[in-house]
């Protein structure tokens, strides 16, 4: 099912992503961020661990919002802490231990407009911003980091509502506050009466970051507003007919280091497709995520069966998180690769020839998409090894997470109207394809992973 490629883009939205100049590809920080976001329990010993396994009470986590219990996973009130491998002592995960957002996008709120640089996150569903309702010392911290604060008293279109919101992450960090409605503008499209979640308090992990808040692009079940969940900007764009009926979608083009990254609403960029037809996969949105089937992978031409496996597509995560058995097969195909407990993940020799990097194809629905060699490594550790972009999804998390290092290899189409995810493969040579059909055959027999 293909969505229309728009020919008249005058009334449709395009936003250029800002490559965060403060972002550093620091392995443990990137891993800490995703462990914290999804309350993941690490399966590899290292400087991060989880303590306090008791039933969740109080503020909601992202996953508790939908009562996630898939494959035996139940949300607990556990806390991610730093763990000294030598002494066994633990300590708090601080702002310096968690990565900033890698990509930011300007969103204008209110009348007259106040511009906020937000992280566009397809792994959550809250639109929250730093606000003038925060304590003075927290506002000072936000401004010291170079970020903006939304002041609802300066907007003639802001209306107070009775809603409240609260998000708590796995490291104990969080933000909360009250709600109101206002007009917002994303890429030239104005959305009226959007619920804005105003932070009246936020933990230090947020205050020193490079973003002024977050724009959630997942489905409404993940939203934390009470007593009634807020609709996301995409849902409101659709209900207000801000985008064409046959293109109720947004797309993302992450370009790695080149800086030409962008986000569109209401149309598919024909140039990004390069003549290739997007391959679509049904999305299971019941738990709020962009969740697709991913029941096989292919390593150097050898298919690996992963019956029943699914993945979520998350623009708010830098790494790709996969189950441990698949990682063992992947890095087992790379000479010199090993688990380095000091960075709690897989590393491989930095001087590995590009021709020796395993070809990893990940199934999204019925098509494979390849992680190109230039995105196989996440960061040079400076000790002769490179930290891989694919790392462990832990012992309790039921999905793979396809983050930015996967998305840099495709043009991604999040079709909310048809509840499907589309992709076009982008290759190192600049060519584009529809991906490789899973049933197109492999170079050797299919293997079954041992769990």
TrEMBL record:
One Pfam family name from the record?
Answer: Asp
**Positions of the region Disordered?**
428-451
The record, for InterPro entries, names: Aspartic_peptidase_A1 (IPR001461), Aspartic_peptidase_AS (IPR001969), Aspergillopepsin-like_cat_dom (IPR034163), PEPTIDASE_A1 (IPR033121), Peptidase_aspartic_dom_sf (IPR021109)
Q: Give the transmembrane region(s).
A: none
The UniProt record lists the keyword ATP-binding: no
Which residue positions are annotated as catalytic?
Answer: 121, 314
Name the keywords, alphabetized.
Answer: Aspartyl protease, Hydrolase, Protease
Q: Which residues form the Peptidase A1 domain?
A: 103-424
What are the protein's GO molecular function terms?
A: aspartic-type endopeptidase activity
| One record GO biological process | proteolysis
Q: Which family does it belong to?
A: Belongs to the peptidase A1 family.
Annotated protein name in UniProt:
Peptidase A1 domain-containing protein
User: Lineage of this protein's species?
Assistant: Eukaryota, Fungi, Dikarya, Ascomycota, Pezizomycotina
